[in-house]
């Protein structure tokens, strides 16, 4: 059965390594017959959450920017995959800001159940992505039907495009292809 998947690339770098992981995931998901929408945070205006919690009463954020539409798309997706570079052993700040701005989803009848993390870093040691995973799990914990369904990490990639040929590209493709 086809699922509605949303892939959010959070890197602001052109030709980023995490974007390439996202592309592989998208390719696999589409080949498996899923409907896939891709969003890049490049050239998007996403301001910081003010913590006013008006969104919980209104059903949308009071800050008029691109985060409102992205959160609506997150709400309607059955699968969400985030692709992020790992900076200082954590998800990119723009990803965290988008997660914060998705607060209007809390307490709604959202569609997503499976959430994925695709990440890259210059450091290649095991566990480099653990804080990014933990941060995403903290967000997922607020949505009782959601779960972290899988992760792919590509370490040892620093300059744009250095992920080419990395085994994580195939892993991301297979993860996307397994969506059903």
Any overview of this molecule?
The protein is an alpha/beta fold. The protein has a single domain (4-177), classed as Rossmann fold, CATH 3.40.50. It contains 6 helices and 6 strands; from the N terminus they run βαβααββαβαβα. The chain has helices at 17-31, 54-58, 67-76, 93-101, 130-140, 167-177, and strands at residues 4-9, 35-40, 79-87, 90-91, 114-121, 147-155. Strands 1, 2, 3, 4, 5 and 6 form a 6-stranded mixed β-sheet that branches. The termini are close together.
The helix tally amounts to 6
Head-to-tail CA distance between termini: 6 Å
Q: How would you state the average pLDDT, rounded?
A: 97
The CATH topology assignment is: Rossmann fold
What is the CATH superfamily label? Answer: Flavodoxin domain
CATH architecture name: 3-Layer(aba) Sandwich
Reported for the largest beta sheet, the result is: 6 strands, mixed
Low-pLDDT parts are none
Outline: globular
Q: Roughly what fraction of the amino acids lie in strands?
A: 15-25%
Reading the helices and strands in chain order gives EHEHHEEHEHEH
CATH class: Alpha Beta
Q: Which structural class should the secondary elements be placed in?
A: alpha/beta
Task: Tally the beta strands.
Answer: 6
Structural Rg: 15 Å
Helix content: 25-40%
Domain tally: 1
């Amino acid at each position: 059965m086809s699922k509605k998947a949303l892939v959010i690339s959070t890197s602001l770098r052109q030709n980023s390594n995490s974007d390439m992981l996202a592309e592989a995931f998208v390719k696999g998901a589409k080949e498996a017959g899923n409907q896939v929408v891709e969003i890049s945070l490049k050239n998007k205006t996403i301001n910081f959450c003010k913590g006013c919690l008006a969104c919980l009463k209104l059903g949308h954020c009071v800050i008029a920017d691109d985060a409102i539409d992205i959160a609506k798309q997150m709400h309607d997706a059955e699968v969400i995959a985030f692709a992020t570079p790992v900076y200082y052993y954590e998800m990119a700040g723009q990803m965290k800001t988008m997660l914060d701005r998705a607060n209007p989803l809390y307490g709604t009848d959202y569609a997503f159940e499976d959430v994925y993390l695709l990440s890259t870093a210059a450091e290649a040691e095991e566990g480099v992505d653990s804080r990014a995973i933990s941060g995403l799990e903290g967000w997922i914990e607020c949505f009782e039907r959601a779960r972290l369904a899988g992760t792919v990490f590509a370490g040892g990639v620093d300059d744009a495009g250095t992920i080419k040929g990395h085994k994580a590209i195939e892993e991301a493709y297979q993860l996307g292809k397994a969506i059903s």
